[in-house]
Description:
By secondary structure, the chain is an alpha+beta fold. The chain is 37% helix and 19% strand. A hairpin with a 2-residue loop joins β1 (23-28) and β2.
Amino acid sequence: MTRAETLLWRCLKADRLAGLAFRRQTPMGNYIADFVAHSHKLIVELDGESHDFEERIRHDERRDQWFASRGYRVLRFTNDDVMKNLEGVVLSILAAAEPGAPLSLTLPRKGGGNPSIDASLTNAKDVEK
Length: 129
């Protein structure tokens, strides 16, 4: 795993992200999803510099179409997005997991955020009564 993947995985593993159960490096058909939450049919892909080449871009598009044909929604981020704006990436993932979320989301600016999404960053069981 890249450094960015490791950093994001720390946020996603063990249902830490509002109870979403993500798996990493999951084989699906002829592809491997970087991170997948089957319960929400949500896939998160992190792309590094090797994804900047035309052949790789076409491969990624075919992969994303294959996932979509099976009802999965694919969010794509760069390693740079994670390293420079982890909070924004996490908020985008949370927003995409919400029922009725739009098909494309913009990445929130670092330090910004949506208060309604921020409130859902923790599980209800984590809040003291």
